[in-house]
Amino acid sequence: MHSLNQEIKAFSRNNLRKQCTRVTTLTGKKIIETWKDARIHVVEEVEPSSGGSCGYVQDLSLDLHVGVIKPWLLLGSQDAAHDLDTLKKYKNVLNLLNKQK
Questions:
Q1: Which superkingdom is the protein from (predicted)?
Q2: Looking at the whole model, is its pTM more than 0.70?
Q3: Nearest residue to 80 (alpha-carbon basis) of 97, 63, 95, 94
Q4: Which residues lie below 8 Å from residue 20, measured CB to CB, with a gap of 6+?
Q5: How many CB atoms lie within 10 A of CB 80?
């Protein structure tokens, strides 16, 4: 079994996979960032303009995941809070909401 110290000493950048990152700037411009020779290289991505593009990636899918932190404490998005089918899965929360009305 190797020690952490041995693994750190044996580390080589050559063993890392080459990566590139697609970035959408606040202005909507799309660029590709890659690392080469310890320097970042930026290339503007050429794609046909679709018209009113946003400076961010829109995610229109619902986030209905709910995490149970404690039996009385749930963590979820506003999508889950507005979805009755999701709320019905958590009976205590629905009972609490009915008492407040």
A1: Eukaryota
A2: no
A3: 63
A4: 32, 33, 34
A5: 21
Domain segments of the chain as ranges? 4-44, 59-94
Number of H helices, E strands in the chain: 4, 5
Burial (CB count <10 Å: 0-12, 13-18, 19+), residue 17: exposed
What residue spans of the chain are helical by DSSP H? 4-10, 78-81, 84-88, 91-100
Query: What's the CA gap between 57 and 24, in Å, rounded?
Result: 7
Task: Give the integer Cα–Cα distance in Å for 23 and 67.
Answer: 30
What pLDDT is attached to residue 98? 66
